[in-house]
Description:
mainly alpha; 11 helices; 2 strands; disordered N terminus
Amino acid sequence: MNVLLSANSIDGIEARIAPLREQLTRHPLYAAIQTPEHLRLFMESHVFAVWDFMSLLKALQKELTCVTVPWVPTRWPESRRFVNEIVLGEESDQFEGRAVSHFEVYLEAMEECGADTTPIRQLVQRVPRGLLIEAGSAPEAARQFVEATFALIREAKLPALAAAFTFGREDVIPDIFRELVRDLNEKQPGRFGKFVWYLERHIEVDGEDHGPLSLRMVADLCGDDPELWEDAATAAETAIEARLALWDGILEQIRGS
Length: 257
């Protein structure tokens, strides 16, 4: 995507990505999810995005904070506080009186509604041993999405990484989807309650401080460097395009089910 507009500001990036975000918000996937089986298919692919989000977040934490010994302060105090707050909530939130990551809640939500967690659990077991995702271990669109995320982590500069996190991973799931999940949970009590909590929790945390702070992080890291702003804008576009491709893949699965 090539828009002739300077991206040397947050407003510039938001203008660049506005058409892509509109496509994401209005994606036909949301209307296509009509049954519990459709929602299970969605979760079986989306869980890979929930998982690799944590690696994207940890890559930011590694760069913005000091995670080595001896400790020394980094030069981004506001951004390091922000990323540490995000890690605290995502990796060890309070749920049902216990500390748990949002990824683990998502797995529990999948099990609660009968979705298959085998492929994602196999991936998590292989990763510590340095094993890559095998073609058959995940839905194809999910596999490609994860590969794109890790390519970004390996290759992108810090401002681009922050932009992909800020603009490509913020909550864009429309109200119609959340209403569908609530409706299914009311019709089948005890089947989708944890997924409802997951969706509502992300609305809560994204809508308070995290949105403005993430924008400030991008601005802080880009500074007055036009090249860094351009890298950030391109990374934001690429991240949203990857999400659109994931949604396309899930939609194809649902239509073929």
